[in-house]
């Protein structure tokens, strides 16, 4: 047994603890949900590792969670017989925050408790939420496969530091003892704890056991029993029939799988039969996580095979442009020993993935049609990511194109609310193209001199100013049989939108300006490819255009900025 060691928390952990205790106090019972969620994850991990190493079960294969109360010592204990943690894991997981986006998160804090409580919800607080109600937390844990003498005890008052020492623990798994703060005695009530478990953790697939509720004898006195019983339904939520699952249960399950604090925006739950049999329960989050644009994302879709958790995958189960989707896929057909390598080239997985992509697109279409406000809020959070899909997912390009939303000259704000179908519905007589302009910012797009002639003719133009829009424009060349055309390219042909008068004006402009144009051509000979007179500009004296087949000026700037 090693001597007790005292270590300091990572700075971020200290900040997080402070913030959490203040801002989440009004919702303090969530600590139980978080600790139960972790215990359930630990059971999943053990079951997975035991596929290859069944001896890890150590004659104790019934995975469960146990919650108990010691009123005299004012403690609540949450114990599991899951995977447990080694000493290194304890230090890594309970002393630091490894999440990507952590720095950005702390920079975004405002100091206003209300706003920060929201932010912290998106960030997720997990284990540390124990300190909302406890002034000391003792974790005793032994990793499956390690001898009883290799267990670890971690203890902290949630201030600057924690202690860690080696101890004996015969049973595998983790036991967390919360020493309640003064004033938190309500959590000593088993009745209260049962209620919290039913509210937040009913969906957990293994039993959450507590002492049986007392029965009442004829004299009306409670008869206490030492028997244990499961408080939750203890079956995987996604295997239950839709009719038996309430919206609240769907939402709580989401918070568990996605490690999110906010309710999801929408979900799809279906059992799919056919070439591959599987159940999918997929969610669209309400808010973008901090690491949406980070390469090292950890969160994705959880893959189960016949109820056994196999892995959480960020690439193989959902395409990159739907990387915000969270949830579970449970296959009936894949082998239990499916590895990441096998997944990489599995046709079966491709079938499942294609089916799930269709479900998600269907879900988004349904939102767009029936819950317009929610779709607008979805678009604000994830629209830029969805736009990547037009170039990435050839098979679903049309469906994705219909889901796109843009700012246009029809409105006067940068809100992206116009669909391509809206645009087509408003096209002018004789108009056969969809016009767009790309720029660094909404303001630059809106004030471009290229738009003058379109304004004059009352023709709507899409104003594209997101980073991804150049790539979008390059991959989306037509919609509904109409070509998408940049207003800043070449000698723009307005087709039937130009009437005779316009053509005459153009000719006159060319004639009148010939001497000036010739002089400019000579003066700028090595700087431009051509100089042309135009009748299209109304307020501006001149503008730059790029050749029909050249990169747009904006794309050129982007590439330069990226060092290419
Ligand atoms: P998250 O669950 O989002 O990863 P938490 O703060 O809830 O974040 O937990 C941090 C980590 O601590 C977990 O990822 C896990 O590795 C470890 N952990 C927490 N509780 C347990 C437990 N009961 N058994 C095993 N590992 C645990
Ligand atoms: Mg957790």
From TrEMBL:
<feature type="domain" description="Histidine kinase/HSP90-like ATPase">
    <location>
        <begin position="27"/>
        <end position="184"/>
    </location>
</feature>
<dbReference type="InterPro" id="IPR020568">
    <property type="entry name" value="Ribosomal_Su5_D2-typ_SF"/>
</dbReference>
<dbReference type="InterPro" id="IPR020575">
    <property type="entry name" value="Hsp90_N"/>
</dbReference>
<keyword id="KW-0963">Cytoplasm</keyword>
<comment type="function">
    <text>Molecular chaperone. Has ATPase activity.</text>
</comment>
<dbReference type="InterPro" id="IPR003594">
    <property type="entry name" value="HATPase_dom"/>
</dbReference>
<dbReference type="InterPro" id="IPR019805">
    <property type="entry name" value="Heat_shock_protein_90_CS"/>
</dbReference>
<dbReference type="InterPro" id="IPR036890">
    <property type="entry name" value="HATPase_C_sf"/>
</dbReference>
<dbReference type="InterPro" id="IPR001404">
    <property type="entry name" value="Hsp90_fam"/>
</dbReference>
<dbReference type="InterPro" id="IPR037196">
    <property type="entry name" value="HSP90_C"/>
</dbReference>
<dbReference type="Pfam" id="PF13589">
    <property type="entry name" value="HATPase_c_3"/>
</dbReference>
<keyword id="KW-0346">Stress response</keyword>
<keyword id="KW-0067">ATP-binding</keyword>
<protein>
    <recommendedName>
        <fullName>Chaperone protein HtpG</fullName>
    </recommendedName>
</protein>
<comment type="similarity">
    <text>Belongs to the heat shock protein 90 family.</text>
</comment>
<comment type="subunit">
    <text>Homodimer.</text>
</comment>
<keyword id="KW-0547">Nucleotide-binding</keyword>
<dbReference type="Pfam" id="PF00183">
    <property type="entry name" value="HSP90"/>
</dbReference>
<keyword id="KW-0143">Chaperone</keyword>
<feature type="region of interest" description="A; substrate-binding">
    <location>
        <begin position="1"/>
        <end position="340"/>
    </location>
</feature>
């Amino acid at each position: 047994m090693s001597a007790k060691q005292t270590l300091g928390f990572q700075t971020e952990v200290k900040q997080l603890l402070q913030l959490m205790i203040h801002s989440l106090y009004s919702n303090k019972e969530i600590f139980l949900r978080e600790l139960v969620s972790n215990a359930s994850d630990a059971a999943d991990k053990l079951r997975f590792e035991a596929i290859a190493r069944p001896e890890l079960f150590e004659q104790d294969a019934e995975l469960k969670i146990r919650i108990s109360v010691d009123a005299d010592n004012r403690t609540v204990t949450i114990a599991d017989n899951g995977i447990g943690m080694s000493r290194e894991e304890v230090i890594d997981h309970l002393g630091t925050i490894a999440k990507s986006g952590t720095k950005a998160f702390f920079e975004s804090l405002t100091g206003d408790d209300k706003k920060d409580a929201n932010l912290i919800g998106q960030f997720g607080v997990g284990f540390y939420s124990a300190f909302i109600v406890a002034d000391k937390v003792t974790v005793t844990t032994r990793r499956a496969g390690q001898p009883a003498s290799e267990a670890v005890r971690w203890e902290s008052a949630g201030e600057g530091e924690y202690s860690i020492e080696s101890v004996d623990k015969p049973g595998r798994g983790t036991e967390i003892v919360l020493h309640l703060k003064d004033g938190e005695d309500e959590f000593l009530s088993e009745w209260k704890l049962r209620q919290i478990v039913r509210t937040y953790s009913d969906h957990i697939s293994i039993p959450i056991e507590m002492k049986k509720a007392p029965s009442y004898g004829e004299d009306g006195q409670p008869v206490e029993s030492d028997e244990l019983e499961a408080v939750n339904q203890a079956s995987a939520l996604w295997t239950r029939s839709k009719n038996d699952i309430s919206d609240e249960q769907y939402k709580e399950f989401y918070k568990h799988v996605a490690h999110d604090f906010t309710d999801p925006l929408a979900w799809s739950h279906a059992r799919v039969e056919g070439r591959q049999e599987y159940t999918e329960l997929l969610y669209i989050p309400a808010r973008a996580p901090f690491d949406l644009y980070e390469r090292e994302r950890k969160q994705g879709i959880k893959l189960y095979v016949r109820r056994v958790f196999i892995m959480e995958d960020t690439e193989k189960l959902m395409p990159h442009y739907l990387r915000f989707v969270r949830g579970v896929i449970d296959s009936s057909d894949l082998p239990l020993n499916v590895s990441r390598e096998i997944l990489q080239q599995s046709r079966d997985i491709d079938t499942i993935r294609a089916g799930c992509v269709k479900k998600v697109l269907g879900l988004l279409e349904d939102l767009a049609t029936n819950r317009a406000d929610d779709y607008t809020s979805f678009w604000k959070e994830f629209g830029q990511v969805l736009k990547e899909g037009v170039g990435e997912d050839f098979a679903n390009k049309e469906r994705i194109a219909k889901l796109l939303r843009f700012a246009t000259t029809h409105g006067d704000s940068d809100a992206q609310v116009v669909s391509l179908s809206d645009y087509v519905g408003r096209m002018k007589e004789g108009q056969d193209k969809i016009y767009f302009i790309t720029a660094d910012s909404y303001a630059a797009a809106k004030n471009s001199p290229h738009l003058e002639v379109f304004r004059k003719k009352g023709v709507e133009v899409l104003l594209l100013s997101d980073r991804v829009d150049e790539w979008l424009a390059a991959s989306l060349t037509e919609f509904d049989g109409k070509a998408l055309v940049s207003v800043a390219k070449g000698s723009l042909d307005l087709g039937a939108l130009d009437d005779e008068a316009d053509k005459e004006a153009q000719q006159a402009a060319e004639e009148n300006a010939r001497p000036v144009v010739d002089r400019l051509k000579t003066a700028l000979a090595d700087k431009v490819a051509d100089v042309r007179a135009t009748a299209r500009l109304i307020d501006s004296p001149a503008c730059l255009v790029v050749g029909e087949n050249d990169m747009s000026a904006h794309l050129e700037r982007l590439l330069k900025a990226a060092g290419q």
